[in-house]
Amino acid sequence: MPRVSQKKPLLRVAKAEVPPGGALVFRKSRVAIVREGDNIYALSIVCTHLGCSVNVTPKELICPCHGSIFGRGGEVFKGPADRPLEQLTVEERGEFIVVLS
Fold first, then answer.
1. Quick count: other Cβ atoms within 10 Å of Cβ 26?
2. Within a 10 A sphere around the Cβ of 43, how many other Cβ atoms?
3. Which residues of the chain have pLDDT under 50?
4. Helix (H, G, I), strand (E, B) or coil at 16
5. Which of 2, 39, 62, 65 could form a disulfide with 52 if both were Cys (CB 3.0 to 4.6 A apart)?
6. Ramachandran class of 80: left when φ > 0, alpha when ψ lies in -120 to 50, beta otherwise
7. Phi, psi of 31 (to 5 degrees)
8. Is residue 93 within a helix (H) or strand (E), and if so which, with residue range?
9. DSSP state, residue 8
10. Is the CB of residue 25 less than 8 Å from the CB of residue 38?
11. Which of 65, 10, 8, 16 is nearest to 42 (CA)?
12. Distance between alpha carbon 9 and the CA centroid of its chain, in Å?
């Protein structure tokens, strides 16, 4: 049988803690949980250029090392990064959001 990789829980956060139109940033885990309308998603805050942790602002994510700028969905607005930020798997479990790695 082929091996099936199981994703492991990385973070567990109450949905009510994620502000409408805002984000929660977990620097140690290098994850941002973002809410836009009814949509909640998680992004890795590891820059795809050289692995620095990006800063999350209300409008975009900015790499302090080399100036890459990403949209709130992780898309590249300005290089040198040429790949979007990784979108992480999110599961809703009752009143909680679980981010899987």
1. 15
2. 25
3. none
4. helix
5. 65
6. alpha
7. -135, 145
8. strand 87-93
9. P
10. no
11. 10
12. 14
Where do the structural domains in the chain lie, given as residue ranges?
25-100
pLDDT tens by residue, 63-81: 999 999 999 999 999 999 9
Return the closest-CA partner of residue 83 out of 33, 56, 43.
Answer: 43
Rounded CA-CA distance 74/47 in Å is 10
Helix (H, G, I), strand (E, B) or coil at 85: coil
Which pair of structure tokens corresponds to residue 16?
A: 């009510």
**CA 91-92-96 angle, 5° bins:** 120
Contacts with 67 (C-beta within 8 Å, 6 or more apart), sequence order: 78, 80
Residues forming a β-bridge with 32: 25, 43
Class of domain 25-100: mainly beta
